[in-house]
């Protein structure tokens, strides 16, 4: 009587798809890949000698894999190691370790808020009712089998608070009708409002006026208000940014009539021949150590002007 050839049972759709995926990718381990080829070749009707020659394996190995698949299914693809030493931790100890890892450290009187492998292993060695000695790698493998990981929240998570919606409604103070985004005004046909502020260093006061447009006329009006604040005619100094509206012909003409100096801040990209650094003391400052660093609009002395403050323009 001739024995029947060794063959795998009928593969299910899921088993066939998984075996084909392992063979096509070819990136599986050196054990899973040849075993998957053995099973697919046997399902295709090939005999044991042909399969052994295909995967370059011993003819005694192929029947063992086929019989193992018929017994436990796709679990036969995973390599089974030899017997290890006796277990040092019982199932009750593993349950205790998993329960401890999923409980906050503050519940056990520990001075930190989250576990790590080092902290958990050290705590398990100090438990009074049971002493569990386990290394970090063995502890990591145990927690991985139980699905326990120590990870920080790196993105928004869903809240488990049953009153989450009610609490969220109480803290939302922005009206629903307020738009999420306000469109930008790229075309301002009516000009931009500027605030000409004047800061008196000596008096430590600040005043100013709003203007609908930017120009030399409004800058001149702001400078006149500075001169009016010091009617004693003392020489004052003004520091302005390097704006064209601050250097008009009318401003320079009126600057010659009053004692003081008109200084401009250093431009963003000055040329080597158009500006030079200078320093001076603010005339209205009571402290001789009050110095300013300025850049003149052109080589030569500062243009005289009536000033004692720092007018600036701001949108």
Automatic annotation (TrEMBL):
Residues 265-315 are annotated as: Disordered. InterPro entries: Homeodomain-like_sf. SUPFAM superfamilies: Homeodomain-like (SSF46689). This is IS630 family transposase. The lineage of its organism: Bacteria, Bacillati, Actinomycetota, Actinomycetes, Kitasatosporales.
